[in-house]
């Protein structure tokens, strides 16, 4: 994981209440200085209501102030009737409470009033801050005990009953409305919180504040279709994990309702005018749909196969621009300002530039899922379509999937810098550079996996052609191994305790095993029933060693990203200790999706049969016979 700024984590909710304890003496001084500045500044009544309700300074620009523009909030300058506060203050004093602008309002009968503005739909960001504050408020006593002297002055001076009111006031929030016009329930907001925190860290090691998942959520705030898919996938995964896989009908029904609405909207979008289709939103929604089917789809993989075929069709019909995508050298120009010279992607249309980079990145992500599904006889449609589209690509003359994958991935590299511009921290830029090579290796491994899967499908149909293709796949394996030889060799000596938690370490430990898994998968196909050669032995040792290091470093979070290499190692190894450890890991992964449970059952059966027969077992044959449920990892 990337390192955070001192004393601050992007996983912390953005809307902490003012009474939450300070985490350091510097933070305490900063809060005190802010309070003094606020008390000394003159108050203006010309600011927007959005800033005034949050009690922050507004620059009073119209039609939208800079703060609302930066946070994508609704800037409200509408006139409101003045409130008579005299009697309300008397009521507060009669209850023995000092005037405190931060304490919740009380009714004369001692009950709680609705949160400010709850009579009208709230903005999504406000609702997220309030929901997050509940979770942090519930932990205040533990924070006070742990932090000792470093406590907030306001928390120490506020009566405990007021703290309880602050905790309780948002436990049952009203139905809220997102900018995309969806009405969001309490469960929906819980799903959004899961998507932006836990989900984001499982599927991307990058800082969640600046990751691809963060861009997807930004798009979802203005797209009902994409928001439905966020709620469907994140909501079901959250409940699946919390219940240990014992899903209740109510949660599944809510998830399926969001899912079906998203599919209906996708159908209308695809059938509409191609020029009006937002390909960034469509591809992001398709990625979530494919992932949903992979994790929670039917046992024969029909839904997953249909989505992959549909995505391939959309790319062929609606994304012809892929073939004419400019080379990265054409997209890079040098810009100068008064301070320094930087090289970044700056085409004439800034918004289209970011969209194109994002589309390219989503194609890479979807192709990775497609390659994984192809290993189990489901996918391959997306990769074959993209190869066909990219034949006229300026930099590509060969037909190997490695060519287009590398080119598109390199083209999309300026995505984050273009998305956040000058607000993108230099620490994130350096972090991207550090992880650039290892992510390049991951993209190559996904395409190698697709090539091996395509080769496996060819063997039963045309043995002669399959043997000819075997040579090209073997050359591609050697090519990637030589290109990333230093990275692969370095992983042998890497110890997680050297720099635990660092993103580069985490990525090396979980990405290099994918190359070893492709090597094992290739030789398992081309040398069936034969003893392992030295390349297979080295690959098997590499997977087990790195997997153990990754588990020590991150636990199940790392196993989530290394599931397929673990599955291949479990099939190939004859070490009973390694097999039992791998089975334990898959048993634990069963909490994260049905596909991992199906993989565990098949792996357990394959290990048992191979021990009984004294030879390797054809995994795909067991699936094709219908003995076990089809899955993709």
UniProtKB/TrEMBL annotation:
The keyword Cytoplasm does not apply. GO terms for cellular component: nucleus. This is Zn(2)-C6 fungal-type domain-containing protein. Pfam families: Fungal_trans_2 (PF11951), Zn_clus (PF00172). Keywords: Nucleus. It is found in: Nucleus. It comes from Coleophoma cylindrospora. One of its GO terms (molecular function) is zinc ion binding. Residues 87-102 have a biased composition (Basic and acidic residues). Residues 47-77 form the Zn(2)-C6 fungal-type domain. InterPro entries: Fun_TF, Zn2-C6_fun-type_DNA-bd_sf, Zn2Cys6_DnaBD. The keyword Nucleus applies. SUPFAM superfamilies: Zn2/Cys6 DNA-binding domain (SSF57701). Residues 79-123 are annotated as: Disordered. It comes from the Eukaryota.
């Amino acid at each position: 994981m990337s390192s955070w700024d001192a004393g601050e984590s992007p996983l912390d909710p953005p809307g902490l209440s003012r009474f939450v304890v300070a985490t350091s003496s510097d933070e305490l001084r900063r809060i005190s200085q802010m309070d003094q500045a606020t008390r000394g500044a003159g108050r203006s009544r010309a600011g927007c209501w959005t800033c005034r309700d949050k009690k922050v300074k507004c620059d009073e620009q119209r039609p939208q102030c800079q703060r609302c523009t930066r946070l994508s909030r609704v800037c409200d300058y509408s006139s409101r009737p003045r409130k008579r506060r005299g009697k309300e203050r008397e009521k507060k004093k009669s209850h023995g409470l000092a005037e405190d602008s931060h304490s919740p309002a009380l009714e004369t009968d001692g009950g709680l009033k609705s949160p400010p503005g709850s009579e009208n739909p709230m903005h999504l960001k406000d609702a997220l801050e309030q929901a997050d504050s509940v979770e942090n408020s519930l932990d205040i006593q533990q924070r006070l005990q742990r932090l000792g002297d470093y406590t907030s002055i306001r928390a120490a001076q506020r009566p405990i009953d007021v703290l309880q009111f602050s905790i309780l006031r948002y436990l049952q929030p009203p139905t809220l409305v997102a900018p995309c016009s969806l009405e969001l329930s309490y469960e929906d907001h819980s799903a959004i919180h899961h998507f932006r925190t836990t989900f984001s860290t499982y599927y991307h090691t990058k800082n969640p504040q600046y990751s691809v998942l963060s861009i997807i959520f930004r798009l979802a705030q203005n797209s009902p279709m994409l928001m439905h898919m966020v709620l469907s996938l994140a909501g079901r995964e959250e409940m699946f994990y919390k219940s240990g896989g014992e899903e209740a009908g109510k949660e599944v029904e809510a998830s399926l309702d969001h899912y079906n609405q998203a599919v209906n909207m996708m159908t209308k979008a695809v059938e509409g005018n191609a020029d009006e289709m937002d390909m960034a939103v469509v591809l992001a929604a398709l990625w979530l749909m494919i992932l949903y089917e992979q994790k929670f789809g039917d046992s024969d993989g029909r839904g997953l196969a249909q989505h992959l075929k549909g995505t391939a069709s959309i790319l062929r019909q609606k994304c012809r621009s892929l073939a004419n995508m400019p080379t990265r050298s054409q997209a890079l120009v040098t810009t100068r300002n008064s301070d320094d010279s930087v090289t970044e992607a700056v085409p004439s249309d800034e918004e289209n530039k970011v969209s194109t980079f994002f589309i390219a990145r989503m194609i890479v992500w979807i192709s990775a899922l497609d390659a994984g599904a192809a290993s189990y006889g489901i996918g391959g449609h997306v990769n074959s379509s993209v190869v066909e589209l990219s034949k006229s690509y300026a930099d590509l003359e060969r037909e190997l999937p490695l060519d287009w994958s590398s080119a598109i991935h390199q083209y999309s590299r300026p995505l984050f810098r273009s998305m956040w511009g000058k607000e993108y921290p230099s620490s994130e830029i350096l972090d991207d550079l550090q992880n650039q090579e290892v992510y390049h290796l991951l993209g190559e491994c996904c395409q190698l996996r697709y090539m091996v899967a395509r080769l496996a499908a060819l063997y039963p149909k045309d043995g002669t052609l399959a043997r000819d293709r075997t040579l090209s796949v073997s050359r591609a394996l050697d090519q990637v191994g030589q290109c990333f030889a230093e990275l692969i060799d370095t992983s042998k000596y890497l110890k997680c305790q050297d720099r635990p938690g660092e993103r580069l370490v985490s990525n090396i430990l979980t990405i290099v095993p994918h190359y070893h898994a492709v090597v094992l998968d290739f030789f398992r196909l081309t040398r069936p029933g034969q003893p392992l050669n030295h390349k297979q032995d080295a690959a098997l040792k590499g997977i087990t060693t790195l997997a153990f290091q990754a588990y020590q470093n991150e636990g199940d979070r790392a196993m989530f990203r290394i599931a397929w290499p673990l599955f291949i190692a479990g099939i190939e190894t004859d070490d009973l200790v390694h097999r039992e450890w791998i089975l334990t890991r898959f048993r634990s992964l069963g909490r994260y999706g049905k596909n991992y449970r199906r993989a565990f059952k098949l792996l357990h059966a394959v290990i048992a049969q191979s021990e009984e027969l004294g030879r390797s077992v054809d995994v795909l044959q067991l699936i094709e016979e219908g003995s076990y449920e089809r899955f993709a990892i």
